[in-house]
Amino acid sequence: MTEHVLFFDIDGTMLSTGGAGQRAMELALAEEFRVADPFQQILTAGRTDRGIEDEIFERYSIPATQASRQRFMRAYLDRLPHCLQQLQGGLLPGVQQLLQGLSLRADVHLSLLTGNYFEGALIKLRHFGIADFFQDSGGFGDHHADRNDVAHLALSVVRQRLQRPVQGSEAVVIGDTPADVRCARAIGARAIAVATGVYTLQQLQTTEPDHVFESLGATEDVISKLLTKV
Fold it and tell me: Which helix (H) or strand (E) is 205 found in, with range?
């Protein structure tokens, strides 16, 4: 039986897009809604795409209708593959080896807990060649502005996948922002922080994760910390 459920964040944790996600959103807003330079003073790290969408729509008085939301999402997703090609990001240190090692274990279930739209997440994971490591859809930022709500969704998806009442205490959230640590606590999960995004090791330590790493490069040590319940 699976004993360990691991929820991975995407941007800043497993990969860097080189800013492709934000660039694709900028192009979508400029070309579809005539909004130039939309990200001034808007924090994106640790946010859900729905939360970013909500803030931009409010700031620039875009009617938050279902049609407008679908138009924005479609415009962003249509531009994302080209932006990924242009900006040439990459997998972060140790990620490929870590996922390979974890995927060989029968007691580990790999899932996702990310602020990305579902389709946007798949585009990124496929672009960098790691989509096949994840056995279910997990939790995504299509409908929730609050990342804690995404965490509850992710846990519900895993319960359906494994067909048993998975508890938060069986789960670990791996992410690069304080929001990842907070959403882990919201479902009673352990939190592993990695300082490969915009937050430093010291900044992440103040959020009191169970462990914090400079990167995921030390594969054996990372796996040990992920699978050892304290």
Answer: helix 201-205
Determine phi and psi for 119, rounding to 5 degrees.
-65, -35
Which is nearest to 98 in space by CA: 4, 33, 14, 211?
A: 14
**How far is CA 79 from each of CA 25, 94, 113, rounded to the nearest angstrom?**
8, 28, 23
Structure tokens at 77: 């997703």
- The three-state DSSP-derived secondary structure of 57-85 is HHHCCCCCCHHHHHHHHHHHHHHHHHHHH
What's the N-to-C CA distance of the chain in angstroms? 20
pLDDT (tens digit per residue) in 134-179: 977 899 999 999 999 999 999 999 999 999 999 999 999 999 999 9
Instruction: Tell me the pTM.
Output: 0.95
Distance of alpha carbon 91 from the chain centroid? 14
What is the residue whose two structure tokens read 């899932």?
111
